[in-house]
Amino acid sequence: MTDMALKIENLKAEVEGKEILKGIDLTINSGEIHALMGPNGAGKSTLGEVLIGHPNYKITGGKILINGRDLTNATPEERARAGLFLAFQNPISISGVKISTFLRMAYNNLYPDEKMPLKEFFNMVKTVMKDVDMDESFISRSINDGFSGGERKRFEVLQMVILKPKIVILDEIDSGLDVDALKLVSAEIKKMHDQKVGFLIITHYQRILKDIIPEFVHVLKDGRIVMNGDNKVSDRIEDEGYDWIKE
Ligand SMILES: Nc1ncnc2c1ncn2[C@@H]1O[C@H](COP(=O)(O)OP(=O)(O)O)[C@@H](O)[C@H]1O
Ligand SMILES: [Mg+2]
C-alpha cells in the first residue's frame, strides 16, 4: 500500500454560526493509531464531520491535506477517493437502498477500473459479514432500516473493510456494542492496521482503547487540542476523567 498522510493544519470550523473548532493541528500517517478523546461537546464529532466534508459544517480557517494535496474544500466523494473513510456516529438511514446495492455502488465509485465480477464482490462481502457476525440476510435489507445500535456499528465496520480506505476515522465505534461485538470490531481494526491503514479513533471513553492501543492520544477541549501524549493519557482519563487536563 502506498503511504499516506492526513495533515490537519490550524483547522477552524463553525456550525450554525458558532465556532466549534478553534485551530486544530494533527497529522495521521499510514499505520498509526491515534485516539481523539475529550469531554462531551468538545468538538470531536465536529472534527470528524469536517474531515469528511459534511455540508452543515463550515471551515473558516486552516487546511486539510492528503499527501500534500489540499482537500479543504473537496466533496465527500473526492475525499473518499483520496482514501479517507469516516464511519458516522449516527449514520442516517437511506431508506429503500439495499446494503448490497449501496456497497457495490460505493465500491465501483472508488475503484472504477477494477471491475470486480459481482459474484466475487459478494463473496468478499459475505466473508466480512461472517467476520463481524452479521447474518447473511442483512445483505438484502435496506440501509439502517430498523437496525439496532449494534447492527449499525457492524454495518459501519463492514463498509470500512470492504471499501479499503487508507485512513479511517471512527466516531464512537464502541458505543452500543457489547463485549463480544467489540472484540470482533477490534479484530477488524487490527487487521487493517497490519496492512498499514492509519486510524483516528474518536472516543469519549477508554473502553475500545483497551483492545486497540493507540500510539498517540490527543485530548480535545472546547475546540482545541490541549494535550498530546500516549496511552498513559487515556489510562489516566479512565481513572480521573478530564478535569486534570487544563485548557
Ligand atoms: N449540527 C449542529 N448544530 C448545532 N450545533 C452543533 C451541531 N453539531 C455540533 N454542534 C455543537 O458543537 C459542539 C460540539 O459538538 P460535538 O462535535 O458533537 O462534540 P463531541 O463529539 O465532542 O461530544 C456542541 O456544543 C454541539 O452542540
Ligand atoms: Mg461526538
From TrEMBL:
Pfam families: ABC_tran. PANTHER family: ABC TRANSPORTER I FAMILY MEMBER 6, CHLOROPLASTIC. Keywords: ATP-binding, Nucleotide-binding. The lineage of its organism: Archaea, Methanobacteriati, Thermoplasmatota, Thermoplasmata, Thermoplasmatales. It comes from Ferroplasma acidarmanus Fer1. This is ABC transporter domain-containing protein. It comes from the Archaea. Transmembrane segments: none annotated. GO terms for molecular function: ATP binding; ATP hydrolysis activity. SUPFAM superfamilies: P-loop containing nucleoside triphosphate hydrolases. Residues 6-247 form the ABC transporter domain.
